Amino acid sequence: MRFGVNYTPTRGWFHHWLDFAPDDIRADLDSITALGVDHIRVFPLWPLFQPNRTLIRPRAVEQLTLLVDAAGERGLDVGVDGLQGHLSSFDFVPSWTTTWHRRGLFTDPDVVEAQAAYLTTLARALADRPHFLGMTVGNEFNQFSGPPHPDPDRIGPAQAGRWLRRMLDACEKGAPGRAHLHASYDAAFHDGTHPFTPAHSARLGAMTAVHSWVFNGTAQRHGPGGAATVQHAAYLVELSKAWATGPGRPVWLQEVGAPAPHIPPERAAEFTEATIAAAADCPDLWGITWWCSHDVDRALADFPELEYGLGLFTNDRRIKPAGEAFSRGVRRWREEDPPGPAPRRTALAVDAGDEETAPARAVCAPGGAFFEAWMRLAADGVRPAVVLAQRAHDAGHLAARGITEVLTVEQVGS
To answer: Which of 4, 69, 82, 194 can pair with 289 through a Cys bridge, CB separation 3.0 to 4.6 Å?
Structure first.
């Protein structure tokens, strides 16, 4: 299993691309390496790399390769997100898609072709680096497709699927054979009206990505130390598998963090340890990538309060208790080299309606009947998997996943 961090630069946050400083980046990477991790995830800002629809800045692409090479020199593999897109409550979209040039991010032919060209360019620039993992299409780009975004580009599930396939094909064109994927925030699993679906997450790309944030109602409902809170990441990993077309598809816990005040700072280390232990007990987990490496500099304005303190390090590169806990978990895993977790024999059946669009997936959200039933099982020491109701009696499917017992929400009770 892989362990890594989402790299948040100490100097200028992701605005560091405007004042690219290799020495600062190397110092940041040195602190990250000390954690014992093996990879990072990095975030070019789309408007800075492609400020005009037909201009992808060569100097910006060169700076990305310099960052990736600096990581590789330290033994760190690198996953690169392309369309940024959305980060820490801020949107980063180029001027040629907004105001006087407003056009659909997912459907306008010129925009889609420009996005594809951009992803291909980044992937091609990195294709010969052995430490380049692959591209993620963008960071939670699905948030542009519907509420609560204040100005969404509304599409349907079929349009979302076509766009994702086009973007993934563009990544593959630039760097054939690498692990290219896409990443959605959890509306894809919790909101039946959202156009990006669990099937998209679990069937498109080289692996499934899940982002676990307990401020989505989980910590508010169950408290910072509740079983549901520390099992939330594991829950999303297992939930995503229900929609996979076959057993063994890898799942990347690509973002998970300890957001205050939902997780008080004095409990962040405890939460980190418990979350790692729970997620590591999920078969087929590719890796855990913590959000994030370094705190946001408080000289930068207008971030939501919780965004400033999510780092494993302070902004001046001092390790925090959560960072120490994460590093202990990494080193313990490396030193003990445990075998992969046993199959989860008991599964809870989820009925979210149509398999492709999952219109009733609200049952999977915090407070939903399925979510709460799964968490009751987990709290009782059961290691529940998840199976779609449509496959609950498919003997071949269950056997392939090692499932010997399927429960319904009604059987779990309240």
So the answer is: 4
Residue 336 binned pLDDT confidence (cut-offs 50, 70, 90): confident
The token pair at 135 is 């591209």
Domain count, the chain: 2
pLDDT at 341 over 90: yes
Q: Is 403 left (phi over 0), alpha (psi -120 to 50) or beta?
A: beta
11 and 111 fall within a common domain? yes
Amino acid identity of residue 169, one-letter, is D
Give the residue carrying structure tokens 């006087």.
Answer: 100
Based on the fold, state whether residues 272 and 332 are members of the same structural domain: yes
Q: What is the amino acid identity at position 263?
A: I
- What pLDDT, on a 0 to 100 scale, did the predictor assign at position 326? 98
Q: In this structure, are 320 and 404 located in the same domain?
A: no
The DSSP code for 265 is: G
pLDDT of residue 232: 98
Between strands 39-42 and 77-83, the pairing is parallel
Secondary structure of 86-133 as H, E, C letters = EECCEECCCHHHCHHHCCCCCCCHHHHHHHHHHHHHHHHHHCCCCCEE
Does residue 337 register a pLDDT over 80? no
Residue 341 lies in a domain: no
Whether the CA torsion 275, 280, 282, 284 is positive or negative: it is positive
R_g over Cα of the chain: 20
What is the mean pLDDT of the segment spanning 35-56? 98
For residues 383 and 406, what is the distance between their CA atoms, to the nearest angstrom? 12
The amino acid that residue 235 corresponds to is Y
Q: Which of 298, 313, 336 is the last residue of a domain?
A: 336
Give the number of other Cβ atoms within 10 Å of residue 305's Cβ: 9
Q: Going along 272-403, which residue ranges are E strands? A: 285-290, 346-350, 385-388
Residue 40: helix, strand or coil by DSSP?
strand
Strands (E), 150-268: 181-183, 208-212, 251-256
What gap in Å lies between CA 318 and CA 215, rounded to an integer? 26
Looking at residue 335, its pLDDT comes to 84
> Global pTM?
0.97
What percent of the chain has a predicted confidence (pLDDT) above 90?
Answer: 97
Token pair for residue 85?
């897109």
Structural domain ending residue among the three candidates 313, 336, 359: 336
pLDDT over 80 (residue 400) = yes
Q: How confident is the model at residue 414 (pLDDT cuts 50, 70, 90)?
A: low
Domain limits for position 20: 2-336
Whether residues 373 and 301 share a domain: the answer is: no
